[in-house]
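QA checklist item 7 of 12: single-chain prediction sanity check.
[x] sequence parsed
[x] length recorded as 360
[x] structure emitted
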Amino acid sequence: MTTSTPLLEHTAQSAELLWNAVSIADEHAATELVLRLLDEGADPESVLLDVIAVVQGRVGEEWAAARLSVAQEHAATAINDRAVAALSVHPAARTTATRGRITVACVDGEWHGLPARLLAEVLKLRGWRVDYLGAQVPTPHLIAHLHSTRADAVALSSSIATRLPAAHAAITACQAVGVPVLVGGAAFGPEGRYATLLGADAWAPDARAAAELLAERRLPLPETDHQQFDDLPHLSDQEYTVVSRSSASLVQSVCTALEDAFPAMRSYSAAQRERTAEDIAHIVEFLATSLYLDDDELFTWFITWTAQILVARGVPAHSLPPALELLARELKDFPRAVRVLRAGTHVLTTAPLTAAGNPA
């Protein structure tokens, strides 16, 4: 018995055609394909999630494997976003709001707006009144919006784990004004482990699941006196605060010392040195986030992914352990930070590298 159906085959073919268009930055072909699918009777939600979202996932995979440049990845994402916009005004996507009101936004600093946009459109299709606020929404502006509306819930999206401290602040602030929070996106980890840690009222793995959860039950009103420290009492040791506030000096110190620890760096061009500094800055940022969550596994996952990206760029992965050792020396008085860095060095020196995926 085969698991293939004509519908699934047609969806896969449509996703391949859309990929062909976005991979060469052909906006007109991409938009025409989406509109043609709707004209031919395709379900708008399926076009959003089984075609556009699938292609966007492939965009990320191709970038991680160094088969798309940053510019190409940005162009492909922009074209997918315009395809969503075209779908949203097609007659097939017109619905009447019969349910409550949901605010959809990305947390402050999160510029991956397409997942939230997809959720917003799915919720509209299912009869919700949706306020889509877009990417990088500062928490004060989000709260000001909630004060001026009667939202039944906030749906917060984050793709990059380093935005989780900002997500935590947003979750707590929304709950303080009496609005429950549903979260989603790769940042919240496998099975939404960080959603629970950060006190979110609900988590969903994807847009369909989020829409179904909101349709099944009304999220309970949160406790308005909940504080961020209630969730993460380990922050009292100040390690997260020190590392996050001193990130610039840490990067500079490691870059300066790395030439002796990794002599090949002495022959780097200016562009290569700049890229190295960026990589170290990302390492420090993920270290700080791991300290915020008190989760070594987040850092070991990230450092493994970074090694895979470096290999795809033609940079030897053995350049990373010296950088981690230098960071550990700089932070020798901070036991949790040293523990996390040692865990990163261990996984780099014991685990084989596989193909890179998207960062959580």
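[x] summary fact logged: The longest strand covers residues 101-106.
[ ] second reviewer sign-off
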